[in-house]
Write a structure and sequence with these properties.
Methane Monooxygenase Hydroxylase, Chain G, domain 1, single chain, beta-tubulin binding, 3 helices, chaperone, microtubule, Tubulin-specific chaperone A, cytoskeleton
């Protein structure tokens, strides 16, 4: 079996990075919910047995901040991968050796990346 073409590799990279970003968005929502629940627990006076609810809240807040910090460098990597894929698609359209399926998959990945970038 021949090795995958650069177009297939670049398409996979864009797809993987978009999935990674979606995963981080989901994680951020979950962590923010934990922070809110912990804040409500503290406000209602329900402290756990060891009295460390404030410490737990700070830990959850730290995780939220660390997750938020991932987005900017990840978006930069996505944009770089998209640019590379756009260049490869343009080269293949001018007369490359990629199959129609590979080209269609690459264009679909580009459309998805542009749609996600517009909503971000």
């Amino acid at each position: 079996m021949p090795p995958p073409s650069p177009l297939v590799i670049a398409t996979g990279a864009v797809t993987r990075l978009l999935k990674e970003e979606a995963s981080y968005h989901k994680e951020l929502q979950e962590q923010e919910a934990k922070v809110k629940a912990q804040e409500e627990k503290i406000q209602s006076g329900q402290d756990d047995e060891e009295g460390n609810a404030t410490y737990i809240l700070k830990q959850h807040q730290m995780v939220v901040e660390q997750t938020r910090a991932v987005f900017k460098p990840l978006r930069t990597r996505i944009n770089q991968a998209v640019e590379k894929l756009e260049d490869l698609v343009a080269a293949e359209e001018k007369g490359g050796s990629a199959s129609e399926e590979e080209l269609a998959n690459a264009k679909a990945a580009l459309e998805k990346a542009k749609a996600e970038n517009a909503s971000a």
